[in-house]
Design a protein that fits this description.
0% strand; 160 residues; 76% helix; mainly alpha
């Protein structure tokens, strides 16, 4: 049961990252964000297909490098938001970008740490389920909450 759940969570997250890359098409810096989301989409898909891939040197190197750059970028965005946020962080473009980076960091770190035990223990699996469901529940909430989307720039309103 646990191996199927782990693979399912990775499949769900690969779909999320792919969808997140896809919806960047009309963003002013689309190319950058498409790469940022496509890398974890591919890495996560590989984990879903073969959980043992997390022990592969190339997989570990690419994921560690991507996690590092996402952490650096997230720290920069958090600092910017600390100085410039005027309303709820989700209403700020940089706030949504920060949450995207945090999801990437959390998921890729979880996958990266799974190389010792590809399915993980109960706690790791519970965390994986929560992280895998969070982006989809958030998207549904935001989609339903028209007031939240009203202050967003046009490129954020027209994709889905």
């Amino acid at each position: 049961m646990a191996p199927a759940l782990w693979r399912g969570c990775n499949g769900l997250m690969a779909a999320f990252f792919a969808l997140a890359a896809l919806v960047q098409v009309n963003d002013p810096d689309a190319g950058l964000w498409m790469v940022v989301y496509t890398i974890p989409a591919v890495l996560t898909l590989l984990v879903g297909l073969n959980p043992l891939v997390t022990g592969n040197f190339i997989w570990k190197s690419v994921s560690a490098t991507h996690i590092f750059f996402c952490i650096v970028w997230a720290v920069g965005l958090a600092y910017y938001l600390l100085l410039h946020t005027q309303r709820n962080i989700i209403h700020e473009e940089e706030g949504r970008e920060l949450f995207g980076l945090l999801i990437i960091i959390a998921w890729m770190s979880l996958c990266h740490s799974s190389s010792k035990n590809p399915v993980g223990g109960r706690i790791q699996l519970a965390i994986a389920i929560v992280i895998a469901l969070f982006p989809f529940i958030s998207w549904v909430y935001i989609y339903i909450n028209k007031e939240m989307r009203s202050s967003w720039p046009t490129h954020c309103k027209t994709v889905i």
